[in-house]
Amino acid sequence: MTCFSFLCNRRLKSATKHAAELDELSGFNNVNIYSYKELRIATNGFSDINKIGEGGFGSVYKGKLRNGKMAAIKVLSSESRQGVKEFLTEIQVISEIEHENLVKLYGCCVEANHRILVYNYLENNSLAQTLLGGGHSSIQFSWPTRVKICIGVARGLAYLHVDVRPHCCPPRY
Ligand SMILES: Nc1ncnc2c1ncn2[C@@H]1O[C@H](COP(=O)(O)OP(=O)(O)OP(=O)(O)O)[C@@H](O)[C@H]1O
């Protein structure tokens, strides 16, 4: 009986926490909320065939969303120590980013202990790999194209530094 009520309490607490997270997310503009099921279907069960990379955040999968769009689906690894609060803050900041040189965040999934970010899918793998060579890419950039890419990257960085402010800090005037 005690064990049963303990389990019920835990479920209730986790459901309440989840509802609070979804509540917070619903206040963010431009953020789609995906169910774990949709992302599992999109990536064929997060199959290795669809894995396109591995970053500091965790594994990245290519997937086709229900609306037909291709997406890069980043699954926060269980070893990552990023908490829900940090995850939500990150989403809030990234979701407001709108720049031609920066990848667009479509939305996220916060379900049970799953933390997943869904981005616009960019063709041709990692730009760094293509720029540096190393046999993974068949693309050869000319020097004028490389210069254009560098300027685009610099524009994206400048935008992040100048125009994007974390909400936690008061504006600097
Ligand atoms: N939007 C995307 N479209 C296509 N491929 C992507 C996308 N985002 C990530 N990838 C692939 O997944 C790999 C890992 O990406 P991720 O952003 O997780 O880590 P990173 O870019 O290596 O940097 P960090 O570890 O600092 O986050 C990239 O190198 C790229 O090959």
Automatic annotation (TrEMBL):
> Is Nucleotide-binding among this UniProt entry's keywords?
yes
Q: Which Pfam families match?
A: PK_Tyr_Ser-Thr (PF07714)
Source species, domain of life: Eukaryota
Which residues are recorded as binding ATP?
Answer: 74
Q: Which keywords fit this entry according to its UniProt record?
A: ATP-binding, Kinase, Nucleotide-binding, Transferase
Boundaries of every Protein kinase domain copy: 46-173
GO MF annotation list: ATP binding; kinase activity
The protein depicted here goes by the name: Protein kinase superfamily protein
Give the species this sequence originates from.
Abeliophyllum distichum
Q: What is the lineage of its organism?
A: Eukaryota, Viridiplantae, Streptophyta, Embryophyta, Tracheophyta
